[in-house]
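User: For my dataset I need records formatted as: sequence, then structure tokens, nothing else. Please produce one.
Assistant:
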Amino acid sequence: MEGLMLSRVLRDLAGGLPARALGWVFPDETTAALLLEGMPAGTGNLVLSYRPPQPVVYFSRERLRGEPNNPFQQMVANKVRGDLLRVEQLKLDRVFQLHFGGEEGFVSVPPARLLFEVTGRNANLLILEEGRAEGEEGFGGRILHAAREITPARNRFRTTRSGGQYTPPPPYQKLDPRTLTVTEAAPLADLPLSRWREQVDGLGPLLSAELGRRAGFTGVPGPERLPQALAALTSLVDDPSVSEGVMTDGAREAARTEKAAQLRKELVGPLDKRLTLLTNQLSDVTRAEEGIELAAQERTEADILMAYSHQVPEGVAEVTLPDLSGEGEVTLTLDPLLSAVQNAEKRYSRARRREDIYERLAEREPRLRAEYAEAQARVQALETAGLRELEALAAQLETEKPEKVPYGLRFTLPSGLTALVGRNNKENATLTHRIGRSMDYWFHAQGYAGSHVLVRTGSGGRELSPPDILYAAQLAAAHSKARGSSNVPVDYTRIKHVWRPKGAAAGKVNYTGQKTVFVDGDLPEG
């Protein structure tokens, strides 16, 4: 039901107000009918049908019956009482409210408002308090009860919950066809009649099609045919009925519009998620650039330690040494358990890691920025895209979805065996407890958080050669917190000796029967 159609129904209703309400009936679970006395058309029912996706309001002389079918309808019967005093519509939007005077008696019923959102798939009927908070105007107020509870899980922008505050639809600026002047309508001369609903309030697909029929054309009116189009619009304000032929075409257009709106809603989420991911990745590039400065500082400190290692006492946590520039001294913090040379190597290792990270991210930065610009352009195009463009975009996004990646990074050992490396706690648990067989080998850096490495040995459970052991151990060290370090201890054992303690988090294990090798925490060559 479109805005001008709703306005005509409410205009006819307002002509008989205030009116005596004789009570509610409920023909079905999503229809409420109020029997009114003293209307211009005689006693009859104001019918509010709030079933999505085609809610409607109309006045009927038909005799209707029915008791409340659910708790909301019982609340309507109990809380919305007294004379119907007035009705008001939000501009020419598909939202209006009915004001009721309440009842005095043994148990008095205070005045209340019944608000109807005649908005297609999002249709809703709400009981609101008649009083508003200080400074609140129009359609705001506290919700006593809602036919449909809209939680943040369903709509993060606008919730509708019993006991909460009602939030009207977002404000918009459109031309009011009831008061439209020729001067105000001048910009419409360059817009096809089929698109006038973008600028004129109260028009939808059906009435846009009827507007074209009454005007005798659907294209751009231009200054010559603008008066003809405005005359058709004025007649539509007076009588927003739709001919049978237009009803069919308009229904088809309405279905397309509804489909486009739904598709647009489905596409916003993935595109917003993509923008957030790209924003975070570009932030990583910025942090890596800052890391280059730290890497340079760590290399300088390492050079000083190497140059003056003979002057550094053993077991100290801090030392002051001459600056290589010869312009002063530098105070350095040390790991007292390591020698001066080992402290220098540790700094060199950290600097290499920072430089490696920056190089990898710097290579990706142009592609990331291009992808960000493309995703941003897609989000901006959503609002104006038609159904065809939206369907094409949906198909394109579907083809761009990455294929499902199998569990674990895959590596081939020198002997040809496969090693799988977990990328997170969930994958670690899956590799160790679901994919691994009892005679497969399991590797993990001793004392460091990191990946589980699973080496598939086949049905025979073959032994690993020393090169395979060292290769798999390096994988475990390089995919742990010890990455880049030297002499990293790595434990390995058969999967049958690894178990998850009761109640432990995913990826947490105990093991026995292990052997230990020491390797560098860098990825093995090849």
